[in-house]
Amino acid sequence: MADNTLECEEKQEVGTSPKQLRCRFHDTEDYSIFCKDCKDFMCFKCLGQLHQKHDLSQLQDAEEDIRKEIKVQLFENKYSNQISALSDKLSQNRKKLAQSEERLKNEIRTSVAQIKQNIVLSEENLLSELCSTFESSQTTLQDEEIHINYLQNEIDNFDVNKLHEYTVSHITNILSAMKLCSSMYDETNKQPIPGFAPTMEFSIGKLVQKTSGSCDACVFPLPSFSNISTQTDYFEDSDTEWFDAEDREEDNVEESSSDEITEEYPIKLQMNQDIKLISKIVPISEKNAWIISDRKLFKIVDHKLQEDVYAETADDIAILKDGCVLVLRNDKTFIMKLLPNRKLVSFADVGTINYFPYCISIRDNIVVIYLWYLSHQNGFISRNNIIWMNTDGIVTKSSLFSESGRRRPCSIQNLELGLCVLHRFNIGPNFHSLELLDAKSDKCNILYVFTGIYGMNPQKNFECRGMCADNAGNMLVSDHRHHSVYVLDKELKYKNKLYDSKNGLDKTRAINLLNDLIWVADGNQIFIFPYAHE
């Protein structure tokens, strides 16, 4: 009895529709009419749109026709195949949607990762540009402080009671320098202070909704953010593209590449945290070298930095054959000599009331010193004085010449053809120029100029922090902006690249060459590479 009741209830449940009889065209209307011609159901709204002049009846009066229609459909299996195909199609669409969602997620993640990388690159480049800008300003102030300090010493030592004992030229120089200080004070107050203007908005991209078989698309913008700058076109058009271009160079380019590096090299020397930037390296053997960092003189012995400071102030050095070190200081006119017993003694007085030494070089027992000062009268004029002397400190030759602009000498090399001078422009970023001067002429006329190798306007992209010469007279330069060391011929034309970021270089600075080994300063570390001859 219970089984019959349950079976009856199951039949009744199966025969009961779980949904209301809503019109499939008008979801707010109920089915109320049956079309005997179309064998289909409709509502009153359908009546005014379809089935005109058809044989219609009320839904409750068409029970027999409805049962007859479903029997025919089930017998002919007409809709079963369609439902099965539709189910398969829906399943395929579900998989495609899942795959598309995952693909778009990956594309968004990749796009965001690239933007993050560009943001980091933008930060690094902005910070580097900021550092260069302030370093340039600090150097300019340092140059002016040197002249002020020297003038102060002259004034302090000037005895008015012995005025008749001073020469007129000496008094004139002091008065001129005092008037120059007055104009410098006014110009210093007018110097602009660098600022920062962030670019605020960017958008990751847009979500595009495409319809099947149509090229038209609806675009849904993804959220934009207002706290991060992504103006990276400047960097992509400048340093970044150049770096990538170097990395993509063909293997058959004629150059001394990393393929020639032996298993022993390169050697990397990690300095301690107190050594920030190395401005000068002078190797004295395969494992020993003198270095200047933060204007202090240190020594490397057996590839290890000694803790002792050999000179508290040093801007450039040159090594004599007896092992003594000539120490040049920008704020003092005396060149000092560091003896093997670590005692500093005077070597030669090379300055005047205005000229101060900025770089020094030695070759074949001839010491060359480049003196310079910046005149503010009638615009900026660079006053240059290059002197030659022997190892006893006796001056043998001197050249005086001037030029418009604000170029300060950074490094000098005495070559067979002449003097190779690296200048730094004192305005804007730390751009440099490299020239070969005719040492035989009184005015040191320019023989050759390095015009660069990167970009459409290469001379404005040359940022060099070190140079040296090989025995053949070729120049080796460190390109700070492009993480590389390359070779120039005797006419300062590009020959080949030696090492770059693929060899671990990042921000190359001071370099030097000894016994076919190149010492390259990079941050607070030093790389030692072999120098392959042609």
Structure overview:
This protein is of the alpha+beta class and 534 residues long. It folds into 3 domains: 23-76, Double Stranded RNA Binding Domain (2-Layer Sandwich); 82-193, no CATH class; 265-530, Neuraminidase, CATH 2.120.10.30. It is built from 6 helices and 31 strands. The chain has helices at residues 2-14, 44-47, 63-76, 78-157, 168-189, 233-247; strands spanning 33-35, 40-42, 56-58, 202-203, 206-210, 217-221, 224-225, 267-270, 278-283, 289-293, 296-301, 304-305, 316-319, 325-328, 334-338, 344-349, 356-363, 366-375, 381-390, 395-404, 407-414, 419-425, 432-437, 446-449, 464-469, 475-479, 484-488, 494-499, 508-514, 517-522, 525-530. Helix 4 (78-157) runs antiparallel to helix 5 (168-189). Residues 8-12, 213-217 and 219-262 have low confidence and may be disordered.
Chain-averaged pLDDT:
78
Query: What is the CATH class of the largest domain?
Result: Mainly Beta
Distance between the termini: 109 Å
Tally of individual domains = 3
The proportion of strand residues reads 25-35%
CATH architecture annotation name of the largest domain: 6 Propeller
Q: What's the CATH topology label of the largest domain?
A: Neuraminidase
Biggest beta sheet attributes: 4 strands, antiparallel
What is the count of β-strands?
A: 31
Q: How large is the radius of gyration?
A: 41 Å
